[in-house]
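As agreed, record minuted below.
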Amino acid sequence: MTEDESPEVRLQRLAKDRYERPLPKRFYKEASVGDENSVLLDGRPLRTPMKAPLRLPNRALAEAVAAEWEAQQGVINPGLMPVTKYANTAIDRAVSELEKVLEEIVSYAGTDLVCYRAERPETLVRLQAQHWDPVITFARDSLAATFTATTGLSHVPQPGESLDAVAAEAGAVDPFRLTILYNLTTLTGSALLSLMLVRGETTAEKVWAAAHVDEDFQSMEWGVDHEALARREARRGDFDGLVRLLELLGN
């Protein structure tokens, strides 16, 4: 890293390098868990891309990260290590970029997926209400935040106090759950759905279904778009990694 290279620029460069360079060969014989829930490669502590010690909140999570490293065959493929990826992000970015992360979550809440409804056809209107009305109710009852649903795509400003409530809720979680919340939000397009899942007030399958109401309706009406299906499967892999991380964190 050069003297004038910011942490954000360094992370972007590392991510670019990861995709453009050949996968590195596996250089270690064994991955294991060490003291303070650290992860060891041949007895040496593993570090994050920003060179911080990779120490996890509990042993179950440390064992999951170690298992991902142990499962690598011949080469090290980061695409097959979702728990490691998000653990690195939580350690490297969730604290140092807290304000930016919170701003982005609040920005999503301001244009939340569940607030923008179709006017027709009636089947889609009913499906959106079925999946999305409970999310609006959750925000009202659990966050004391009122969100207005509308039809069409014209932006409807949400109350400032409701967005403040989302910011307060997101800002109160630990770095690992904040990482999960942020990435779930970008995957689903809904900060409210993501908060609902992180708080344990819904299931992963309900969140996934709610995030894909429109897409599933289009598939029913016009058939499956195989390119869209491939993109969806890739997103599902990331989603499942985040859900597993959340489960490993426990209550």
